[in-house]
UniProtKB/TrEMBL annotation:
One of its GO terms (molecular function) is transferase activity. This is Family 2 glycosyl transferase. The lineage of its organism: Bacteria, Bacillati, Actinomycetota, Actinomycetes, Kitasatosporales. InterPro entries: Glyco_trans_2-like (IPR001173), Glycosyltransf_2 (IPR050834), Nucleotide-diphossugar_trans (IPR029044). SUPFAM superfamilies: Nucleotide-diphospho-sugar transferases (SSF53448). It holds the Pfam family Glycos_transf_2. Residues 7-176 form the Glycosyltransferase 2-like domain. Keywords: Transferase.
């Protein structure tokens, strides 16, 4: 088997996703290229941690599953850092606890790392709508709202500024160079759905290692469950606002030039084309055309409002984040 050993980290926080967590782990055990190990990191929920520890202590799964408690502050970033510190693989891959990976997910990741310059590889995330179909009004350009790959990202295996955290992998040496995921950015359970911690990390990594290559390979596919409450415009608007807040933090950390580099292209090319498609569909009496065009405009304005508020808070010192060093486990 060529390529590096891969440890998979899945962060969990609620028993409400019990079946999803088990499905995520099962999808790792079904990989065509086996993982070295699966690390389940539980975010300050002792009941869930004990239940998972019992589940996998008695399991006959072919790949070792280790259940860990988040050793840092509450939130996804600290949970990922806990997994990184415990991982034994040369590469650390991350999978959301409500997603399942296709059989060749890890194989495509591992192949990319045969190039020693490659420091991170992401994949394509496909939404699985609770209702069974995409809402007519929901534009593909905003699939990032539900944690999925959105229209406008490049296709194939291509270089990118940053990978998307729910379907991503990094060399362990990347964390030696750049530190871990910043705490104070990103999700904290069911609180306001912030994000962008992987964007900030990737930009920081590229500065620490100017020769680093970061890729997306859209053959590395996962399927991400979108619950019913996230199919509504209210969540769409909340998530867009939170994204603006998060981008303000990223810009504070790495500067607006790099922090908003990809977003400028997205806002000036991808989104206007999406509005035009929606209006065309409306003229042709296709379902949801006007709604999609309106949602794009509303999403842009809401995210911009969040960015302004986040920038003001950052200047006043009302929001802080930290970049921890991560001491990775010694390889056996």
């Amino acid at each position: 088997m060529s390529g590096p050993d891969v440890s998979v980290v899945i962060c969990a926080y609620t028993e409400d996703r019990w079946e999803d967590i088990l499905a995520a782990v099962s999808s790792i055990h079904a990989q065509s290229r086996p993982a070295l190990e699966t690390l389940l990191v539980v975010d300050h929920n002792e009941t869930l941690r004990e239940r998972l520890a019992k589940e996998y202590k008695e399991s006959s799964e072919p790949v070792a599953v280790r259940v860990l408690a988040n050793a840092g502050p509450r939130g996804l970033s600290a949970g990922r850092n806990t997994g990184i510190a415990a991982a034994r693989g040369e590469v650390v891959a991350f999978l959301d606890d409500d997603a399942v990976a296709e059989r060749d997910w890890l194989r495509h990741f591992a192949e990319a790392y045969t190039d020693p310059r490659v420091m991170a590889v992401g994949g394509r995330t496909v939404p699985v709508w609770a209702s069974g179909r995409r809402p007519d009004w929901f534009p593909e350009e905003f699939d990032w709202v539900v944690g999925c790959t959105y229209r406008g990202l490049p296709r194939g295996r291509v270089r990118v500024r940053n990978v998307l955290g729910g379907n991503a992998s990094f060399r362990r040496s990347a964390f030696d160079a750049a530190g871990g995921f910043a705490t104070g950015i990103g999700r904290d359970g069911d609180k306001r759905p912030l994000g962008c911690e992987e964007t900030e990390l990737c930009i920081r990594l590229s500065r620490a290692r100017p020769d680093a290559v970061l890729l997306i390979d859209d053959r590395a596919v996962i399927h991400h469950r979108v619950p019913e409450n996230r199919e509504h415009f209210r969540y769409f608007r909340t998530r867009a606002y939170a994204e603006g807040l998060s981008k303000a933090l990223v810009a504070r950390s790495v500067g607006a030039g790099k922090g908003l580099e990809s977003e400028r292209r997205y806002a000036t090319r991808v989104l206007p084309a999406g509005v035009a498609r929606g209006l065309r569909d409306a003229v042709l009496a296709r379902p949801g055309g006007a709604g999609r065009a309106g949602a794009i405009v509303a999403g842009v304005l809401t995210a911009a409002g969040g960015y302004v508020v986040g920038s003001v808070r950052a200047r006043r010192g009302g929001t802080t984040f930290q970049v921890p060093e991560v001491e990775v486990a010694a390889r056996e």
